[in-house]
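Try this one yourself first.
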């Protein structure tokens, strides 16, 4: 699916390709299924955020939100059934994290979590996104608390994408607050959970 290819291209740093793949996805399947259209627009927003194109990213998010109001889950094919309002909010939170907009990251990050139904793995991912948003907003206590909670939810999750989030957060934390006791405590926590984690986010061995 083109939206999945867009997501992968964005992860690999091929941001312009990711934009084009997302737009192609919207053109092919997005106009025939509302939920698929929302997913395609969300992937476009993610890629534009990676490029630092705040205006285009925000426009894509708003378009996805408006389109989502017309969603009828019973009309969705099984492959898109996972994409609900929390998923859309999670994608928006990722976008605003990448744009360095702490307030919006917090708002959409909160919307991305369903107290009853969000699984621990998703909580770990969104928790790290929220932590990054809090850190960029200068809220050290909140950032470390959110990141620590995310690490607990992860239960040594080995996803390369999650480990990248973790390493990126830890690197920024150490750069901004190198001597703070909260930084020292969090670094120790990560080392206890992931003793082989390298600065690149990859494990040894």
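Now uncover the answer:
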């Amino acid at each position: 699916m083109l939206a999945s290819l867009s997501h992968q291209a964005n992860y690999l740093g091929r941001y312009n390709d990711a934009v084009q793949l997302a737009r192609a996805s919207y053109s092919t399947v997005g106009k025939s299924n509302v939920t698929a259209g929302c997913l395609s627009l969300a992937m476009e927003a993610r890629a534009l955020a990676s490029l630092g194109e705040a205006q285009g990213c925000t426009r894509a998010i708003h378009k996805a939100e408006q389109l989502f109001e017309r969603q009828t889950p019973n009309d969705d094919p099984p492959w898109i059934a996972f994409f609900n309002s929390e998923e859309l909010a999670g994608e928006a939170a990722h976008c605003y994290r990448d744009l360095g907009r702490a307030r919006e990251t917090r708002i959409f990050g909160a919307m991305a979590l369903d107290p009853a139904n969000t699984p621990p793995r998703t909580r770990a991912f969104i928790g790290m996104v929220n932590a990054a948003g809090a850190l960029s907003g200068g809220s050290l206590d909140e950032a470390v608390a959110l990141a620590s909670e995310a690490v607990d939810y992860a239960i040594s999750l080995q996803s390369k994408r999650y480990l990248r989030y973790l390493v990126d957060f830890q690197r920024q934390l150490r750069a901004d607050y190198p001597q703070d006791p909260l930084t020292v405590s969090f670094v120790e926590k990560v080392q206890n959970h992931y003793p082989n984690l390298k600065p690149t986010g990859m494990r040894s061995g």
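Discussion: The chain has two domains: 1-101, 119-205. Residues 200-205 have pLDDT under 50 and may be disordered.
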